[in-house]
Design goal:
Blueprint: H1 3-8, E1 39-45, E2 54-58, H2 64-78, E3 82-85, E4 88-92, H3 96-105, E5 109-112
Parallel strand pairs: 1-5
Antiparallel strand pairs: 1-2, 2-4, 3-4
Length: 116
């Protein structure tokens, strides 16, 4: 048995059942929706950010890799930093109109949401 097989057991060392077959609940991969089917919301936020404004994009349905790829493009085209995790993209600075323009040009359904 290879080293990775032992790690995959997650605490099961031995079973007295001769027909025991160890299985793990593999994470289901999330299917990324087409841009036209995405329903994204874009707004500005200052809460819990030390007074700095950020642009938030929420509502992305898809894999974490696709989310990070979209975030990378938005950050590059806005010329700022940011991050992407848990279905949310954070762009540093007040770039709501620019982000909306980029998303709409790529075919995403995006709307401005409430913000400051």
């Amino acid at each position: 048995m290879s080293n990775n097989d032992w790690k995959a057991r997650l605490g099961v060392v031995f079973s007295t059942n001769p027909d025991f077959n160890y299985t793990t609940d593999a994470e289901e991969s999330v299917e990324t929706l087409a841009p036209a089917k995405q329903n994204l919301r874009v707004w500005l936020d200052r809460n819990h950010r030390g007074g700095k404004t950020v642009t938030l994009v929420k509502g992305f349905v898809g894999s974490e890799d696709d989310l990070k790829e979209l975030a990378k493009e938005l950050k590059n085209r806005c010329g700022v930093g940011g991050s992407a995790k848990d279905g949310e993209i954070i762009i540093q600075g007040a770039h709501r109109e620019r982000v909306l323009e980029i998303l709409l040009s790529k075919g995403y359904r995006a709307k401005p949401a409430g913000g400051k």
